Amino acid sequence: MQIKQTIEQHISLMKKTTIPLEELESLFKGAEVGPRAFAEAVLELENSGVLESVKAAGRTLKQPSLAYRYRVNKQEMTGHHIRLLQQVRLSLHPAIQLDGYFALSAEQFQQDQPWIEQINQYLKIYGFPSSAVPAPERSFQLTGNEKWITDLGGHALLKRLGLWERLLIHPVSDPLMFAVNPALSHPASSRCLNLIVENKTTFQALLPVLTSSLFSTLIYGCGNKITGNLDMFPLQYPVPGRDHRFYYFGDLDYEGIRIWHEASKQHPLLPALPFYEACLAKPYVLGKSNQRRNEEALGAFLSYFSGDAQDQLIRCLGCGGYIPQETLTSEELQQIWRSQEWKQWIAWN
């Protein structure tokens, strides 16, 4: 990392308003940084207004002369960050979007900039691809590192830059496990209903009545795995001209709600209320007091329920209780899925 960028990163994280020269020097202890290069970087920040010398502390006699203490002007740093983004944007491929960085820290952009430059170079030379390839192959083409997209944050960066869809990348995920309703392989409507269930027991209980349901597929979420492998659905079920609606049914505990929330960030998932409401009619059990509460996930989940149901669920979770999917018997699950209530609810949603 460049000397100036290292100093900027350090002072951006500071809570105090001044910094002594010796603290700046300590950032490069053990590094091969010459005194002149260090002094020039500090003076550049001083001249730009990011660092302001504290006159009462004095300056070094050795040239180039530096102040013994500096006042940090974070407002100027923000302005400098915005000007830098505007300047960099002029040199990039027009499809690369930097808008998201105006709300992020300068440190985040500094971390991403080497990757952005590599992507920019690739796009200027080759343009956008015409055919899709697996993530490791595209990752190697863009950065020379086949693991960058899957393991080093490349997927999130490409999304932030607005490039993910245009780069035609096949996600490297486990195959999605689901069953297809042959009776609805050619539905009269373009709308296809798909039910995701968190646990294997519930999947096996509903499977025998899939053909008598209104659903095109029954998907086994396999706990946390659904947050990654749902991307495989359009590749495994490549039926054209379909408007897919996904419904989710999992355990009523903090972890089950978190899984729904994380998967919903990738694809809109409606909580399967007829199942959840049937679970709330059962007594809860204790034993999940060690799970972490995610306020954002809980709030989003509760917004689908009536006021009474919200209060009931909050009381249950608040005392360390939970309601597993298995609280409903196979017979109850099948009856609910084929009920008129489901048909009416689907029509409204």
CATH fold label of the largest domain: Dna Topoisomerase Vi A Subunit, Chain: A, domain 2
What summary fits the major beta sheet? 5 strands, mixed
Structural class, please?
alpha/beta
Number of strands: 12
Number of helices: 17
CATH architecture verdict of the largest domain: 3-Layer(aba) Sandwich
Helix content: 40-55%
Total of domains: 3
> What is the straight-line distance between the termini?
52 Å
- Which CATH class of the largest domain applies here? Alpha Beta
Shape: elongated
Oligomer: single chain
SSE order, as H and E?
HEHHEEHHEHHHEEEHEHHEHEHEHHEHH
Low-confidence stretches: none
What is the strand content? 5-15%
The rounded Rg comes to 28 Å
Strand line-up in the sheet with most strands: 6-8-7-9-10
Q: What average pLDDT do the residues reach? A: 87
Protein name: Wadjet protein JetD C-terminal domain-containing protein
Domain Wadjet protein JetD C-terminal: 195-331
A few lines on this structure:
InterPro entries: JetD_C. The protein has 17 helices and twelve strands.
Question: Care to describe what's here?
Answer:
The strands form 4 sheets. The protein has a 5-stranded mixed beta sheet. The mean pLDDT is 87. It folds into 3 domains: 70 residues, Arc Repressor Mutant, subunit A (Orthogonal Bundle); 89 residues, no CATH class; 172 residues, Dna Topoisomerase Vi A Subunit, Chain: A, domain 2 (3-Layer(aba) Sandwich). The chain contains 17 helices and 12 strands. It is α/β, with parallel strands linked by helices and 349 residues long. InterPro entries: JetD_C. This is Wadjet protein JetD C-terminal domain-containing protein.
